[in-house]
Specification:
Blueprint: H1 3-19, H2 23-32, H3 35-41, H4 43-46, H5 51-70
């Protein structure tokens, strides 16, 4: 697996753990808001961040997507 693939897996698992969600719930959420694409495009910056920051960043991204969706 590539470094990016490993990092995406890490982010999924960390988010799942932090939010106490199932893998299926995380993947549904990530697919709905294209979070994997976001993580992949931000890989360079995010891979040096702590796990808590990554989860918070993903939450901010999802909230921004929801705000756009609600308009």
């Amino acid at each position: 697996m590539s470094n990016e693939g490993n990092f995406l897996t890490y982010c999924i698992e960390q988010y799942k753990y932090d939010k106490k969600l199932t893998g299926k719930e995380v993947m549904e959420l990530f697919k709905r808001y294209k979070v994997l694409e976001y993580i992949f495009s931000s890989c360079e910056a995010l891979h040096t961040a702590k796990a808590k920051y990554i989860t918070e960043d993903i939450d901010l991204y999802i909230k921004a997507c929801q705000a756009v969706e609600d308009k």
